[in-house]
Amino acid sequence: MVNTRWGPVQVQAGLTPDRVVCDVSALQTPNSHNRSVRINNYAKPILHDRVLSAGNARINGVSGATITSRGYVASLQYILDHA
Amino acid sequence: MSGPSLSPLRRNARLMGTIASVHVYDDLDDGQVDDAVSDALAELERLEQMFSTFRADSVISQVNRGELNVLDAPHEVIEVLDACTWLEHASNGAFSARREDGSIDPAGFVKGWACERGAARLAASGLSNFMFTIGGDLMVHGEPAPGQLWTVAIADPLHPDVVTRSIEIADGAVATSGTSERGNHIRLVSATDNRSNSDNESQLLSFTVVGPSLTWADAFATAAFAMGHKGLEWVAQFVGYEAIAIDANGGVTTTAGFTHSSV
């Protein structure tokens, strides 16, 4: 549980056998009402600060400096597209 | 709390020198989803044909050769050039769609703008839950699973195979500008921009902007990256937009509006 300016945020982390954090997700955000959560996160996106491995984490997309179509096959987005 | 996301229907297309990815999480007939995605991708191909400086027959190439007056160009071209002019002023020249020889190259603006138009096409076709991304800039709409936010990884500019940070957002856009693969639309305002002002501030490697519109998230990321650390303050003036900067030492700085969470 992490206290933030906007209220408590409970986060869940997955660990690999060698105790590397492999998944981080928020379980509870300051507002429980769905619409409030949406508006809250719209203005206050949550930044997670731990190492994730693309293979394990619940990641929907990747933002990074533009990759060329040649570089795409080595990108994290490629992993998500072909998982 | 919630179960794993259902596997989305995924499509890729080669667009604008990179790859577009569309992930649709709607529980709809595959054919309906496919038609909607095809329609959105066709719209992006039409826009690429209009704006590409790599195609001799594009509208931009015709304008640059003096064969077509901008005032006679399609309304999309006028809309984009108008926005680029505003951004050049608002960023004090950090962004510019004009080359030094006087020709125009709005490539630094078009990708995010076009991606947002593609996402709008999907919504107009009746899709509710999807991600539309082109080359590291993305828009999300709806939710990947009931009650879930979207988790977007920010690629580490130093270790592209490891994700060191991720963000959670509802509907909206994430765009990143960085040192790699950028065209000449980034023009440093002066030789001292995006450099260390003191020993404590090292050069930025990547600048990510989160906000409601991908057009502006992408445009702000491009301009703010050229500004260096002061780009954070610049982005913060735009309501609804937040930013994350990663420097060469791995240091991360954000605008005040981020909720930080660590384990």
Description:
The complex is a heterodimer of chains A (about 80) and B (about 260). Chain A is of the alpha+beta class. Chain A has two domains: about 1-50, no CATH class; about 60-85, no CATH class. Chain A has two helices and five strands. Chain A has helices at about 35-45, 75-80, and strands spanning about 1-5, 5-15, 20-30, 45-50, 60-65. A three-stranded antiparallel sheet of chain A has the order 1-2-3, with no helix packed on it. In chain A, strand 2 (about 5-15) and strand 3 form a beta hairpin. In chain A, about 35% of the residues are buried. By secondary structure, chain B is of the alpha+beta class. Chain B has one domain (about 10-255): ApbE-like domains (T-fold, Roll). In chain B, the strands form two sheets. An eight-stranded antiparallel sheet of chain B has the order 1-2-3-4-7-8-9-10. In chain B, strands 5-6 form a two-stranded antiparallel ribbon. Chain B starts with 8 loop residues before the first strand and ends with a strand. Residues about 180-190 and about 195-200 of chain B have low confidence and may be disordered. At the A-B interface, strand 2, strand 3, helix 1, strand 4 and strand 5 of A face strand 1, strand 2, strand 4, strand 5 and strand 6 of B. Strand 4 of chain A pairs parallel with strand 11 (about 260) of chain B.
